[in-house]
Amino acid sequence: MGKDTKDLNTQDTPALENRRRFLGRSALLGLAGAGVSMGLAGCKEEAKPAAAGTAAAPAPAHAASSHEVAPGQLDEYYHFSSGGHSGEVRIIGIPSGRELRRIPVFNIDPMVGWGITNESKAIIGTNPDGSLKYNTGDTHHVHGSYKDGTYDGRWLFVNDKIHSRIARIRMDTMEVDKITELPNVMGFHGIFPDKRDPVDEKINYTTRVFCGAEFHCPLPNDGRDLDDPSKWGALFSCVDAETMEVRWQVRVDGNMDLTATSYDGKLVASNQYNTENSAELGGMMASEHDACVFLNVERIEKLVKEGKFTTIGKSKVPVVDGRKAANSDPKTAVTCYVPVGKNPHGVNASPDGKYFVCAGKLSPTSTVIELALVHKWFAGELAKERDAVVAEVELGLGPLHTGFDGKGNAYTSLFLDSQVVKWNIEKAIAFAKGDKTAKYVVDRLDVNYQPGHGFASMGETKEADGKYFNSGNKFSKDRFLPVGPLHPETEQLIDISGEKMKLIADHTAYPEPHDGIIVRRDVVKTRKIYNMDDFPNKVTAETSGIERKGNKVHVRMLSMAPAFSLPIIRVKKGDEVTLTLTNHDKIEDLTHGCAIPNYNINFIVNPQETKSVTFKADKPGAFWLYCTHFCHALHLEMRSRFLVEA
């Protein structure tokens, strides 16, 4: 991907007609007649996918400073952020901090109809009666798919910590297309895609996504061993990026937190606290060291291929034993437990592919692990796991997460000190080797307050550009207007392009986001409208109508501003109604809504998109089915009568 951003605000105008021109003209056309065809007059462009890009107005004479985005101008980066216990993913423009979109994932969203439409329910998962299996979620970590060590703009992956699910988001539409629940896992926390295939060196893109489980639980968790946590365990899972099926699992010691993958594709790691395997708080902090566990993916998959695995409960997923006691011989081991600072909270891979950095949390240190030495341990050429550590340097109180600028510097959040510290990795290694003149700490910056996750622009790719660092702070206190006991959280944007860090903006965040990534805008190629032929249940002028089979009624309807194709829909009380709606408009951003009062129905259909809902007509009466999404000068008149006979 190119890095040239000189023309960021001079993109070409979109090929399809824009909404403003359409609305200006269609207001007059709509007055001439409310027929469906009139809403499309003068709009005959063919529907086809297209790359994103909106015409930007010229910059005003009083040009903004380098980090500000003037009215009409576009941001340089997308910030994809988790939404925490909202269960969503958020898209934010950087450096403006403007929230661009919320992607519903594990939550219900009546604006788009997520969790309401049949299509979204099928992805989220339902009970036998058609109700959602879960309607809560807890997203923590968002990561993109890779090609040649950098983002390819194809997919985002995000975890659900509560119900141990992984979701995949298509980046061309910014919508979820797959959700998978991991078996025999509780507290699925860390997640990271591989950067290239760990077995086939010819495949230089994401093929697997790795998932770390934080909590121990009985295996299987079916009521056994409830009073004996010593028998409980945690599993590390591998999910196929294409099919979203679970490939294999590995049982490990300790509680896994974050996950990171090597650039050569061979290793995946998770920082571990509670290597004591305790079920009590005090016991989880007993040891002076915990671990960063490295998994040798090729060896694991060789064992699976050879049938050297077990299964747990009703799950058919292969499970390999990766506990330390079963992996004492490095030459055959599938896991390597590298001792690190106490109760670590975060592991991140440096852009040059050389190092993994673990932050200590209960130790004021960050540990630098050299990947080449981990490979040596697996080859039997290193005396002990700890020898893979090339530096463990003091940074401050409560180190949590680390980002990188691609210039050899790391940026670590200090929760207790409320700081971000910039430090040089090679100087830290030199200091650890005995050079006490090596000044590895470059700069410190106070943030407000108690930072958790922090990440740099393109910082987890080989194209880390060292421009911005986002500090996700857990408390805002006096930073914003008070809004009650629940305060917003603070996303503080830091300019890291110079020797000294510079705080340049405070952005609010609805609680509680966790991790995120900052992606150059040229990487993201979204579609302007859908392709109607992608929907097998699309409704055309020929198929629009009402079909009855016993007490099952299928209403097939299309929308074209400013009307629905069926002015009257008549059913009987007790009917099971399936309503399928296709938006026949071809104008970018000309979305229609569909709501039925008292029936809990509300969703949208974007241009050329089809969605459906199924519900029981259990309330007799007359109900106006109406458009909820502004689409036309006659938007308020865009209605159909939904009549339920007693």
From TrEMBL:
Pfam families: nos_propeller (PF18764), nos_propeller_2 (PF18793). GO terms for biological process: denitrification pathway. GO terms for cellular component: membrane; periplasmic space. GO terms for molecular function: calcium ion binding; copper ion binding; cytochrome-c oxidase activity; nitrous-oxide reductase activity. Pathway: Nitrogen metabolism; nitrate reduction (denitrification); dinitrogen from nitrate: step 4/4. It is an enzyme of class 1 (oxidoreductase). This is Nitrous-oxide reductase. It comes from Noviherbaspirillum denitrificans.
